[in-house]
Amino acid sequence: MGLNLAQKIIRDHLAEGELRPGREIALRIDQTLTHDAMGTMTLLQFEAMDIPRVKTRLSLCYVDHSMMQAGFQNADDHMFLQTMAARYGLLFSRPGNGICHQVHLERFSEPGETLLGSDSHTPTCGAVGMLAIGAGGLDVAVAMAGGPYYLKMPSVVQVILKGKLLPWVASKDLILDLLRRLGVKGGLGRIFEFAGEGVETLTVPQRATVCNMGTELGATTSLFPSDQMVHSFLRAQGREGAWKPLSADPDAGYDESIELDLSSLEPLMACPSSPDEVVPVREVEGIAVDQVCVGSCTNSSYIDLMTVAAILKGKRVHPAVSFTVTPGSRQVLQMISEAGALTDLIAAGARILECSCGPCNGTGQAPATGAVSVRSFNRNFPGRSGTTPDQVYLCSPQVAAAIAVTGRVTDPRRLGDAPRTELPELFAADDGMILRPPENSEQVEIRRGPNIKPLPRSTAPAESLRAPVLLKTGDNVSTDDIIPAGAKLGPLRSNVPASAEYVFERIDSSFPTRAKEAGAGIVVGGWNYGQGSSREHAALVPAYLGVKAVLAKSFARIHQSNLINVCILPLTFADEADYDRIEQGDLLEMVGARDRVAAGSDLVIVNVTKGIEIPVRHALTPRQVEVYRAGGMLNYFRGKAPA
Question: Residue 327, exposed/middle/buried by CB under 10 A (0-12, 13-18, 19+)?
């Protein structure tokens, strides 16, 4: 039996392990990316490893998240990142150059290579046949230092696409349909590999939307073949030399297969407040809308914005709607300007935002109290918009544009003939806002603002675990719930003590005070704990407050790794019914926890308060057990760093 595409790339980058689902493997990493929301901590961690220069073939740091410079903190972080990049050998994408995933797809993606990014939407570059994976910042720092990236070998799901998208139906509807079928935890431990005759009908930007939102399935990554469509895209970017054909063998095997007929899809929409609450647009038509936002790393490409401009040409945005458009990169902004589409958007009444993440991570454009906001983004978790509570719907740019005109949820098929937009033969390639490190980088002075605090250091775990339950949560707690994103906390990402004041703010604002008083604690969660962003602060900051373990029904992949990396023990219930036998405030104990974790995966926690025993498990690999016993990844890696 032949190899599928994912297996081929993994085989070519395999440093340890074997291609058996569920077994830990180690991958050599070609490229890394980080950005200003995660990058300060990532580069502080890299600096602590005492490695003189990055060892990957290519590493980049983007500024795209924390753009609201209401005080000195964000500007200081940006200067720190720029000087750190120059000192240690990273390329630096300046503020205004664009969203990391859009720019990386345009200028640096390569079929067959591996990319590790400290952002959960790094799989966007799977659109060109690149194995692109999101991870915590510390894992990215390790990769920059020359270490491999460890993960459990995912199963590979073949998604066979048939037919062709109908007018007014977008690739966003394809990924929304998969979310409707599988849910936000349906991709855990899986890679989604797209195949079939329908693949060749999708452009690279359309594929990028699918790969980007595969993250919302909980997938490790998503992947398309590198075919003639990819060749045309890279040639138009002036990077034809980066292309090579890459696809699964004709007799490749898969762990699962899903069939999807593109011609059967219709415009879809995710309702508040989860990406998998998906319904046909026609079923929710008529809801009055106050705000429409087009952009984000999911839908801010040239073809997305040209389509929106064509729908709005000669029309006016409804007077009750605030309509924003965010180009994903300076390349996109320049090209829609030259094509006249920017003028059409402005004439229609659109508000043009700078090339950044912006409203997607709650940095600006928070909706009004009680307002309905429709967005072409990837997430609508509660409060992520910056307003609590909020009512955020997700849809394609086509649906968003139709709503901007009508002021109500509208099936775009009511607007008549769909506009036709084509990819250009040549993109406006200009890398002038990407700074390369100087040759004499060791002489670069690193500039640290007063808000950039020293990196917290973890210590080896105590012999036994004994602590109260500080918080009990429900299912699908996101990293936004643990440590929020947005304009308020963005400036504090380089300051763990300051960030600690906001841990679990949306669930229980008393948590930081109670955690400090307790000195140590445990958090109990439901299914899919830690979904969403790769934000390692959601592990790092609770660890700073003394959280020693999280006991949940299940964990999101990246967050579970982040917990281990900071020496928080992730445990799951052997019997999920035992979740109901623990209450907030109960005292839990596991005698000899450190040694028992090393001895096996089946453990017992004693609920001292209730006088009962609760069987629990851990999924740590032998290597992760060593990481935990060392007091976290930084301590572990410093003892094993490659020469």
Answer: buried
